[in-house]
């Protein structure tokens, strides 16, 4: 493992260029415990990968599941796989092997995947909220409003918009002067953690980060809130109590997944800017869970609790003799 002297004097081509490598600390203040922290992280990662792969296989093989809700769920599963895989393997190599180096050009690439697909996840949660609103409030028009081509178009627009919004993060980072500092106090290349190493003016990066946060989280959360408020109004008008309870249960589980995604994300975002009294290891642990909890919860809540997917999975297990 590189020494502290090497950490503080990284190889540079010039004083105001970029280092050849960055060094990821992992979880600052918990370096001695990182080896053991990696075990639950690894278990969570395996569960996330298996869960999302199973959901994808079930949706692909079952023709009856080629409907709007399940197509959105398939997009969400792909997003979760990319989001968790872009960080966890490197994170585990830091915790278990002490392999903290990440090449300069690999860091903005990882940053691009993390921020792009976390924002894509936000967009898909918003699209799924709209789908539930149309299904409950306009059931007779659901298939005509949200046809398969419309779903594909929505998914493509969500991805394209997020790529266009996030790409400048990576481009700006590649052009910033880093002097001799290359120690990132994080487990992965998060935008603000990298920007803190810059020895020049970072006003543009900070302002653009706030702009993207408003355009992504602000708008998506507003649409999700309005959709579920109208859904709850529609549920309260249902004539039978058991139907209401079933609908409330489904909405509550979906809202729990949404909160599990947005609360850690907002905590991480706000802590970078205002949470100077928050212990650094708490901040980084929450930031790590932000990329792990949704990929675990989404297949369970949106997949296993869905009757059609659950029955298909049980048939597959029975055929395999499991």
Summarize the structure.
The protein is an all-alpha fold. Helices cover 74% and strands 3% of the residues. Helix 2 (34-61) packs parallel to helix 11 (280-304), helix 3 packs parallel to helix 7 (148-175) and helix 5 (106-137) runs antiparallel to helix 7.
Q: Helix-strand pattern, N to C?
A: HEHHHEHHHEHHHHH
First-to-last CA distance: 44 Å
Continuous helix count: 12
Indicate the structural class: mainly alpha
Number of strands: 3
Helix content: over 70%
Rounded to the nearest angstrom, the radius of gyration is: 22 Å
Proportion of residues in extended strands = under 5%
Tell me about the largest β-sheet: 3 strands, mixed
Are there runs of 5+ residues with pLDDT below 50, and where? 1-9, 12-16
Q: Going across the biggest sheet, name each strand in turn.
A: 2-1-3
Task: Estimate the mean pLDDT confidence.
Answer: 83
What is the 3D form? globular
């Amino acid at each position: 493992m590189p020494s502290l002297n090497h950490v503080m004097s990284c190889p540079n081509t010039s004083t105001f260029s970029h280092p050849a490598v960055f060094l990821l600390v992992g979880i600052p203040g918990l370096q001695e415990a990182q080896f053991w922290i990696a075990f639950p992280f690894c278990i969570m990662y395996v569960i996330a990968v298996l869960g999302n792969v199973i959901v994808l296989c079930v949706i692909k093989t079952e023709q009856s599941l080629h409907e709007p809700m399940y197509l959105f769920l398939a997009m969400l599963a792909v997003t979760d796989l990319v989001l968790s895989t872009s960080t966890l393997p490197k994170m585990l190599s830091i915790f278990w092997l002490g392999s903290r180096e990440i090449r300069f050009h690999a860091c903005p690439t990882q940053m691009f995947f993390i921020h792009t697909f976390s924002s894509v996840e936000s967009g898909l949660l918003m699209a799924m909220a709209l789908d539930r609103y149309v299904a409950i409030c306009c059931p007779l028009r659901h298939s005509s409003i949200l046809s398969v081509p419309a779903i594909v178009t929505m998914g493509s627009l969500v991805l394209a918009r997020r790529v266009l919004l996030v790409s400048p993060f990576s481009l700006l980072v590649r052009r910033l002067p880093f002097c001799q500092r290359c120690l990132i106090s994080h487990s992965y290349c998060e935008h603000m953690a990298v920007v803190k190493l810059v020895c020049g003016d970072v006003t543009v990066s900070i302002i653009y980060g706030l702009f993207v946060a408003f355009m992504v989280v602000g708008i998506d959360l507003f649409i999700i809130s309005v959709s579920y408020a109208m859904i709850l109004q529609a549920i309260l008008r249902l004539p039978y109590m058991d139907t209401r309870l079933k609908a409330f249960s489904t909405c509550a589980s979906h809202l729990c997944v949404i909160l599990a995604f947005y609360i850690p994300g907002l905590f991480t975002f706000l802590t970078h800017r205002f949470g100077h009294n928050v212990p650094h290891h708490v901040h980084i642990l929450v930031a790590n869970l932000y990329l792990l909890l949704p990929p675990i919860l989404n297949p369970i809540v949106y997949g296993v609790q869905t009757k059609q997917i659950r029955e298909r999975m049980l048939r597959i297990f029975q055929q395999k003799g499991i």
